[in-house]
User: Fold this.
Amino acid sequence: MGSNEDRYAFNCQWFDAQADLIRTYCLTFYPRDNSIEMYDIKNKRAFLKRSEYVELSMSDLHVGGIITVHARQLKIVDYADAYSRRNLENRKSRTLALIKPDAYNAIGQIIDVIQRAGFVIGRLTTVKMSAQKAEAFSRMQPQSGGPSPSEHAEHLRSDLIVVMELVGENAVESWQAIMGPDSIEEARSRAPGSIRASIGLDDVRNAVHGSATTALAAEEIEFFFGQNANWACTALFNNCTLCIIRPHAVKNAGQIVARVLEEGFEISAMRLWHMDKVVAEEFLDVYKGVLPEYPEMTYQLSNGPALVMEIRQEDAVNAFRQLVGPHDPEVAKHLRPDTIRSKFGVDRVRNCCHCTDLPEDGLLEVEYFFNILYNRKQT
Assistant:
């Protein structure tokens, strides 16, 4: 190994549930061979010798991110050295993105634009804003002489919004360019390919929001995702089924969400979830001893972020299962080539999506995530 080999170091925390302790590690990533090593900071000793770990990539590593290493869920809290900070800070900067109520039907297309632009979606959730919170958020924004904060607040609280933390190179400026100017007229003349020029309706209902500055991005991310945020869950818990876009398919989440909405389903709650192995095993317990792939299924589900959604329609479980397709993508390709698993599934473990199997389980599965786990995360 050459002394000039690139390597990036991060301080990480892992919650040891058995000991009820937060343990701290320094994780070092070597891009050349996709290898990692870990050092136990408190005990001052090696924890994991350098070894290849193909499940982790450079795009997963950013401050504030959550990664899974050998079934341990680690939160990256800071850079561990000046070299990593100097080389990654601009490449791994953050911004806040909102999809406003007027762009609900375009949620999938907008997420797809974000992913194709090279952003990593660090966090994602749906919220319904109260009048007070919508007003507070609107008054955080720089005033430009356009619509008043109250006009923006009225629209933001009118219905469901999707909130995302985006991570990427020069994130604030890059997302601003993709959105286009606040004014629809200006967007259509100066940035005709932008989101606002394409689907914005007016200067309030202009589809999306993005942080104006890096400092404001930090404030806005704290507003929605900070420890004191405590947003009420948007799930409705009726006429519903559960969809989980598995970690291997999250890169195609925009296209999958777009297909779901195009087929007339309602998405009433979304959240990007980082499941640990215990949660994955508990949720998939019904398949234990039934499917031979059960161990691989639990490993895959806990090996990165998964997008979890409450899907609603009349006879939601059966109707959505038809859209998702057969469990085995190879079977889907031959018998149901227009289904989601046919297009995005790889094999019986990486089959793109989980969907509820039985009508009586639709509500139970939605409640597991959006009631039990959601409220556990809020505390």
Q: What stands out?
A: The chain is about 35% helix and 25% strand. The first helix runs from residue 82 to 88. The chain has three domains: 8-88, 94-225, 240-378.
